[in-house]
Amino acid sequence: MSNKGTFVILSPGFPASEEDSTCLPMQQQLVRALKKTHPDLEIVVLTFQYPYHQQTYKWFEVKVIPFGGRNKGGLQKLLLRNKINSTLRKLNAERKIVGLFSFWYNECAFIGKKFADKYGVRHYCWILGQDATKGNKYPKLLPPRSNELVALSDFIQHEFERNHGIKPQFVIPPGVDETLFDNIPGKDIDILGVGSLIPLKQFDNFLEVAAEIQKEIPGIKGLLVGKGPEAERLQSIINNLKLESNIRMTGELPYNEVLKLMQRAKVFLHPSTYEGFSGVCMEAVCSGNQVISFCQPMKNDIPHWHIAKNKDEMTQEALRILLDPMTRYISSPCYPIRECARQIMNLFGE
Known about the structure:
The chain is α/β, with parallel strands linked by helices. Helix content is about 35%, strand content about 20%. It has an eight-stranded mixed beta sheet, sandwiched between helices.
């Protein structure tokens, strides 16, 4: 790929500022890695829905053009498409677009692929999670080619093929920025959960597992980090299970504070019912946590990442780990975000 051109990333959302650490942390780390490894390449992010304004801004030397769509449908959705297509045509005319990369096979890939096919630009879509499910209408509206698709994990590759009849040719897992970890000494948090407090994440299971562990380890200490519509219900569960002295809900925290909590934690519980490849689990592994989840992202085992079939298995595995004096809470080698960026740019011939 020539550096004399513009590389365009299409995303539903993007950080509103350099201080906005909680908005799609893995994606923003990737964009920064792309800029660091290709400093002379102009990278432009078109963000469809969030931030909720339309003023172009700079983000760590990357140009971000927001459209403030706010997930509106109907006529507003059509107008949004027209604005984005107009911007793509202008970018291509003023400074040739040398590649298009979409996050999720949704509206972003729909617009990106249509533009790429019309103007002869190379386009790839990174399938990241829910877009691999059967309910995603976009693969039927605009069927992609196998060699245009990048799956986040082996699981996502299989799911997309199973649900849409097209096997993504490439698999690139999420990377981790190893420079963000401070090696905080001591492990004073027994169990930790992090994520959006929505039904999909099943954090009621987290609390029920904690209640079972508390029967064996009365003084267990845990944190549940995140915000969402389930917050009030989850706090009620804590009260009903009499876990007030064991489990604390923190609300949403800045990204760097979450990483510091991970480095203090022993066991990271991730009871989500569906995950493409949980970046937060990889960060937990890199923080020296023993991770237990219901979803297995890759065919090969990942060190210190345990897969449970159900809530009872998650409970028993957590107890086994916490009660075993020989358990080692050490960081495992991580897949670096810079390697993730390198593989993506290789798709474009870099």
